[in-house]
Structures are given as structure tokens and as C-alpha cells.
């Protein structure tokens, strides 16, 4: 399974057509991904979070990012044979995972989990599903989170694999900010899930004239370790390839 990180992925993932995953028709009392994505409060929180991060100099964390994370999280679990509903909960958690940044960057994962609880409870999601989504959101950040469930592991993989030049807000800053420089250097990003080989591989194409591979490791090593732990939780190994060369 390949997940491309490209400008045409701006829209949130279409994870169902006329039915939600698992064949549950709309209106059956299930809180769907679409109902969360289209909720006005969710839209406001995501935009406010991205705006706050822009002010303090962070890369894009808006609808493009959360839509991609939702898409990758959903398809990762589907590819590995997890139930449709569990995959949809991963998509919901992926879409909501950064809303805590609207309050503060510090402990944004835990703040976002509590904010998501209110949203999902108001939408009518049962408590046993709410806590799965909360746990995934509250554990997605590499510095203080862990893969505590398949949903959490999938969100971690989706979040940490979104490295791409489309996240850079101001290309003029790449000379001064290493995070912008590394993101801007990444021309293509794949998360390749090979269930037969039990391997998950992040495949990057990096313009080394913009940023050297070593800079990627300098700032993203903790993220790669989080991906490795998430993959292991799912019964997989994790690896990284850069410009066709396997590094881990």
C-alpha cells in the first residue's frame, strides 16, 4: 500500500461511498468519519490550531495534514486486516489528532483528546469508541506518547510519515529553519505497508541539494523511533528508504 504525500491529497479521505466501512448505512446511529470531518466545530478547531502554529513558526498542520493522516491511518489498518469500524475510528482520530494546538502546543495531544471527547460525545458516539479515539489522540506525540492500541499505532504512523515540501509555509525560510529545510527537500513520501513481508517502510525522495540526509535524522530520529514502536505493536517491522537506499 502506497500513500503519496502530494498536493492532490488536500481533500480528506473518501473512506466510504454510500456506506460507512463495514456496510453500515448512514442514519444507523454510527458516528462516521464524514460526520466528524464536516462538523462545524471540528472545522473551526482545526483551522484555529493551524493558525496558532503558523504564528509560532510551525509547518502546516491544517486540513491537508489531518486529512492525510486520517487516510493513512485508515488504510494501514484495512491493509492489515483490522475491522472496518476500527479503521474508521483510526481515521476519526487522525483527523482530530492536532486540535489541541488551538489551545497550546505543549501537551496538545492530551488537550486534544479531551476536546475530542466533547465533540464525539455530542455527536452520539458510544463511550467505548470515544476512549479508543481519545487514547490515540493523547498518545500521538512522539515525546510523550505510546502505541497503546491499533488505532493509536495507525495514527502515529500516519502523522510521522507526513514529511513533504507542501507543509512549508514560507520557502524563503528554508535557509534559516532546519525543519522547513528538511520538509521542503522531501519531494515524495510513501508509507508502504507490505503485509506479506510484515514490513512498513517510509520511502522518501529527498533533494540533497536542499538538505542532506543527515539533517533528516537530526530532527526526525524520535519520530522514526515512534514509527518503529507503532509498527512493532501492529506485528510489523519498520524501515526507512531515502532516494532508493534502505537506511534502517
Say what the CATH topology is.
Answer: Hypothetical protein af1432
The number of helical elements comes to 9
Q: Assign the structural class, choosing from mainly alpha, mainly beta, alpha/beta, alpha+beta, or little secondary structure.
A: alpha+beta
The number of domains: 1
Low-confidence stretches: 1-27
Instruction: Spell the H/E element sequence.
Output: HHHHHHHHEEHEE
**Distance between the ends:** 19 Å
Helicity range of the residues? 40-55%
What general outline do the C-alpha atoms trace? globular
Report the average pLDDT across residues.
Answer: 88
Give a short account of the largest sheet: 4 strands, mixed
Counted beta strands? 4
Radius of gyration: 17 Å
Shape-level CATH architecture: Orthogonal Bundle
Strand order of the largest sheet: 1-2-3-4
CATH class value: Mainly Alpha
Percent of residues in beta strands? 5-15%
Short structural summary:
This protein has 248 residues and is of the alpha+beta class.
Can you give a write-up of this model?
- This protein has 248 residues and is α+β, with helices and mostly antiparallel strands.
- It has one domain (7-11, 30-246): Hypothetical protein af1432.
- 48% of the residues lie in helices and 10% in strands.
- It has 9 helices and 4 strands.
- The chain has helices spanning 33-37, 40-55, 63-79, 84-96, 108-123, 127-138, 150-160, 178-185, 213-233, and strands at residues 186-194, 199-206, 237-242, 245-246.
- A 4-stranded mixed beta sheet has the order 1-2-3-4.
- It starts with 32 loop residues before the first helix and ends with a strand.
- Mean pLDDT is 88; it is low at 1-27.
Amino acid at each position: 500500500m502506497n500513500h503519496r504525500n502530494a498536493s492532490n491529497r488536500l481533500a480528506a479521505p473518501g473512506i466510504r461511498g454510500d456506506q460507512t466501512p463495514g456496510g453500515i448505512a448512514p442514519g444507523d446511529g454510527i458516528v462516521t468519519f464524514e460526520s466528524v470531518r464536516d462538523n462545524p466545530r471540528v472545522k473551526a478547531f482545526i483551522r484555529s490550531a493551524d493558525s496558532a502554529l503558523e504564528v509560532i513558526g510551525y509547518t502546516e498542520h491544517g486540513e491537508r495534514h489531518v486529512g492525510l493522516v486520517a487516510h493513512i491511518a485508515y488504510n494501514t489498518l484495512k491493509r492489515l486486516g483490522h475491522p472496518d469500524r476500527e479503521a474508521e475510528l483510526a481515521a476519526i482520530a487522525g483527523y482530530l489528532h492536532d486540535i489541541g494546538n488551538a489551545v497550546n502546543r505543549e501537551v496538545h495531544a492530551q488537550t486534544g483528546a479531551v476536546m475530542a471527547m466533547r465533540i464525539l460525545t455530542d455527536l452520539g458516539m458510544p463511550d467505548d469508541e470515544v476512549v479508543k479515539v481519545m487514547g490515540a489522540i493523547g498518545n500521538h506525540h512522539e515525546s510523550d506518547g505510546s502505541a497503546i492500541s491499533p488505532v493509536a499505532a495507525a495514527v502515529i504512523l500516519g502523522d510521522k510519515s507526513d514529511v513533504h515540501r507542501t507543509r512549508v509555509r514560507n520557502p524563503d525560510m528554508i535557509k534559516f529553519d532546519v525543519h522547513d529545510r528538511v520538509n521542503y527537500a522531501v519531494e515524495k513520501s510513501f508509507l508502504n505497508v507490505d503485509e506479506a513481508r510484515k514490513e512498513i517502510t517510509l520511502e522518501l525522495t529527498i533533494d540533497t541539494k536542499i538538505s542532506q540526509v543527515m539533517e533528516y535524522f537530526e530532527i526526525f530520529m524520535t519520530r522514526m523511533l515512534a514509527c518503529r514502536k507503532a509498527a512493532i505493536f501492529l506485528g510489523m517491522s519498520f524501515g526507512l528508504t531515502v532516494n532508493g537506499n534502505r537506511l534502517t
